[in-house]
Write a structure and sequence with these properties.
Low-confidence stretches: 1-20, 123-132, 147-152
Structural class: alpha+beta
Number of helices: 6
Mean pLDDT: 82
Order of helices and strands: EEEEEEEEEEEHHEEEHHEEEEEEHHE
Largest sheet: 6 strands, antiparallel
Shape: globular
Distance between the termini: 66 Å
Strand content: 25-35%
Length: about 375
């Protein structure tokens, strides 16, 4: 016998019939590949540790066949059935017995993995399509002006490549001019329904105007976390990567918030991954953020990018990973034109189709 829904819908006005027409996704909040959106189709999705599962989670806390998730045509919630797992399946922190419904915006915990249910009703996709161009332009306005000619003033020369998906997925980037010629970098990637995600990215970027000084990325994350809690913003939260560069000390402080690392290529060609790990912004209350720092040799290049820059399917059907993207950047000749544009062109050659599934956003910062 089914239990009642344990999750709270984002809007009680959503009619039950929308479950048959909308689109359902599980978004990875914590665990492997944070931010990954897994579509739920007519076929049930089985999560487990065995290779027979549809979604394999290789961790000891997950049973061989742990739980089954399926779309219910009569409601916008997903039906979750625990398959007699050893450690249980949890919706919003409560262990379920048998089956229960996962409402839009609610959280499912399986072992150390946490998933969020995103539901896109048909009318949301229509509204999102109407404002795609405007929102993409708003995000692009925050990108730093290219400085490849080395005549750009300041301690950092920047270049970028930005190609939004249709509709935009909520990736954004901004630079901050801080006291003492310091420079701040912030990349965000909003998690939630596509139409709302793009709008949310623009709102976050606009409010950065009020930030005139921060000591480092951990402090910046703290300010954003206090303002953009998911419970106060329609269930939306975002992952981020941030850094603050001090040219007087040639020190770069950096931190991740549910995001993959940025890549620092030093003049001898070695690539370092910059990843001081924190949870996503606005998700867990009372989060204390941490950061790390390192010395940056002159001529080093920092590559900051969202997951859409490398998470594509190639012509053989294989999903590209961060390792593939790092190897691609390592092979590009930095002296020949725009490295970000070259990277985009290379990925488009490898991709199995033309349409972008996610925004492509890659920013290069050269320390002079």
């Amino acid at each position: 016998m089914d239990e009642p829904a344990l999750g709270t819908p984002l809007s009680s006005a959503a009619p039950a019939a929308l479950g048959a027409c909308g689109r359902h996704f599980l978004v990875v909040v914590t665990g492997q590949e944070p931010g990954r959106r897994i579509p739920l189709l007519d076929k049930p999705l089985v999560i487990g540790r065995r290779t027979a599962a549809d979604l394999v989670l290789p961790e000891l806390q997950v049973s061989g066949l742990h739980c089954r998730i399926q779309v219910d045509a009569d409601r916008p919630a997903l039906k979750v059935t625990d398959l007699k797992s050893t450690n249980g399946s949890f919706i919003n922190g409560r262990r379920i017995t048998g089956s229960a419904y996962l409402a839009p915006g609610s959280l499912l915990a399986v072992g150390q993995h946490l998933f969020r249910h995103d539901f896109e009703p048909p009318e949301l996709r229509v509204r999102a399509a109407q404002g795609d161009t405007e929102r993409a332009s708003s995000v692009a306005a925050w990108l730093p002006a290219p400085g490849r000619d080395r005549h750009q003033p300041g301690p950092v020369h920047t270049d970028h490549c930005y190609h939004p998906a249709e509709p935009p997925r909520g990736a954004g980037f901004a630079t901050l001019a801080l006291p003492g010629d310091r420079v701040g970098f912030l990349l965000i990637d909003v998690c939630g329904p596509h139409g709302h995600a793009a709008q949310h990215a623009v709102r976050v970027l606009r409010e950065l105007r009020a930030i005139h000084d921060v000591g480092g990325p951990a402090e910046l994350f703290g300010l954003l976390h206090a303002r953009w809690g998911e419970s106060d913003n329609g269930g939306l939260f975002f992952t981020a990567w941030a850094a603050v560069y001090d040219p007087a000390k040639r020190r770069l402080s950096h931190a991740c918030a549910g995001q993959h690392p940025a890549l620092l290529r030093v003049p001898d060609g070695e690539i370092q991954r910059l990843d001081a790990i924190n949870p996503p912004i606005g998700l867990l209350p009372d989060t204390e953020f941490v950061e790390e720092s390192l010395s940056v040799p002159p001529g080093s290049r920092l590559h900051i990018f969202n997951k859409g820059a490398f998470d594509v399917i190639d012509r053989s059907g294989r999903r590209l990973e961060l390792d593939d993207f790092e190897a691609l950047l390592a092979c590009l000749p930095p002296a020949r034109g725009s490295v970000p544009e070259q990277a985009f062109a290379q990925l488009r050659q490898q991709a199995g189709h033309v349409t972008l599934d996610d925004d492509f956003l890659l920013v290069q910062a050269e320390f002079v």
